[in-house]
Amino acid sequence: MNLVRRPAGTATGHAVVLGAGIAGLCAARALSEVFDRVTLVERDALAEDGGTRRGVPQGAHVHSLTVRGAAVLDGFFPGFVGRLAADGAALVTALSEVDIVFFGSLLHKVPVGTVLQAGRPFLEDRLRAAVRALPNLAVLDDREAVAPLAAPGNARVVGVRLARPGGAGAAEDVDADLVVDAMGRAGRGAAWLGSLGYRKPVEQRLRVDVAYASRRYRIPPGAAGPGRALLVGATPARPRGLVLTQQEDDLWVLSLYGFGHPDHPPTDPAEFLRFAGELASGPIWDALRRAEPVTEVASFGYPHALRRHFHRLRRLPDGLVSTGDAICSLNPIYGAGMTVAALQAAALRECLAGGTRDLPRRFYRSAADALRLPWLFSTLADRSMPQVPGTRPALAALLGKSFRATMRAAATDAEVATAVWNAVSLTASPAALARPRVVAATLRNWPRRAQDSGS
Ligand SMILES: Cc1cc2nc3c(=O)[nH]c(=O)nc-3n(C[C@H](O)[C@H](O)[C@H](O)COP(=O)(O)OP(=O)(O)OC[C@H]3O[C@@H](n4cnc5c(N)ncnc54)[C@H](O)[C@@H]3O)c2cc1C
Q1: What is the pLDDT of residue 94?
Q2: CA dihedral of residues 82, 246, 376, 238 (deg, nearest 10)
Q3: Local confidence band at 10 (pLDDT 50, 70, 90 cut-offs)
Q4: What are the extents of the domains in the chain?
Q5: Does ligand 1 come within 6 angstroms of the Cβ of 198?
Q6: Residue of 12 and 45 predicted with greater confidence
Q7: What is the three-class DSSP state of 29?
Q8: What number does CATH give the domain 71-119+207-302?
Q9: Cβ of 26 less than 6 Å from ligand 1
Q10: Helix%, strand%, coil% for the chain, nearest 5
Q11: What is the mean pLDDT of residues 201-225?
Q12: Ligand 1: which atom is nearest the Cα of residue 24?
């Protein structure tokens, strides 16, 4: 693999990435092409045991990688997705293997590309192994980033202060030519800007109050038939959803979610299955009901989708950028977070090809371009739920009707189904949903009666 894409006269030196989640791992890969050394710092002690770790509690819940996300990871590490499949991960390559019910209608079977289905720890472990194999990369785990180090005047970040989690031992200062905050949605990078005398980015929040409950099962090979996944999305009238997917080594995950407290899924095992049974049917569900659970039911609360508008800041210090959930955290029910993290790393890679001058500003603009449509599409779907506050009821009802009509059309019309699938997979712009033929098909399926609108 040729790692050196460094154009003459551009970056050398040391880059430090804070956070070894998907965003940090992908960013480290991009940086390894242009910096002499890359250090990846992670607060958790990293074990290779495939378990859920403290810093990524969402790892117990479904974590599928979209077609676009799989392609970007393959671009960073050629053959990566194939190697995961050889190692036991499930690949979905035909919609005949998946039943997707969005807004009450079953999506017509159209060509899909490749979706990677694996547990988050499985995917992350293998991505981390690929990153660790980079010749100029070192991992410092069990270290917490606690503060930026800045040059006099704070015009440039020149390193980071690390401490052992829990405060044991002395702090250590690490010099860096570039520090990348990939510490997730908590927003340390944004707070650091404030501590250095800069404005913090405006935070846009959409309160969704989504809760998850998930459990993993072992289903014997063949017992679920040819299917590999069942997705039943929430509707305005029934704000509950379910994702049941095959993962590695004949393990399956059943994740349930709901908008708003009365619809949050239960963690009591019997109630958990009852909630699922109100949504699921078919051979995969029948197999799951007979299957052996291999974990307890795990829960996770997701209060709001979040976007930080770094790209609108007029003053930024050199030497510090944030990426991944630190910039944009989409409601996880759309399954796009890892993909947009990978897309931001791809944007970083392109920006670095132009050198490090004015890098933060160039990167944030480029990341904002990559995030605009996923954010718009997912928050419009969120706003169709009456449980999500802040949207006028008439607009929420209109959004609900239009998603319902589009999905009704997508149940039988291959062009509409392809446009929907491409939007969900982030392989093409959702603008295809505004093509005249697609709009006409949507209008033909517009709910006529109030009880038809799903709102
Ligand atoms: C319930 C749920 C289900 C999801 N399902 C999907 C899905 O199906 N598909 C999908 O694509 N996405 C999904 N996502 C989204 C996905 O988890 C994230 O968007 C994606 O992992 C990118 O996150 P990240 O790497 O930016 O941050 P994180 O994954 O949060 O990683 C941040 C890392 O930084 C470390 N860290 C934090 N603070 C410090 C510090 N001070 N010093 C050093 N290290 C630190 C943490 O330990 C962690 O390792 C889901 C999310 C949730 C909550």
Answers
A1: 87
A2: 170
A3: low
A4: 14-56+123-202+309-379, 71-119+207-302, 391-452
A5: no
A6: 45
A7: helix
A8: 3.30.9.10
A9: no
A10: 40, 25, 35
A11: 96
A12: 25
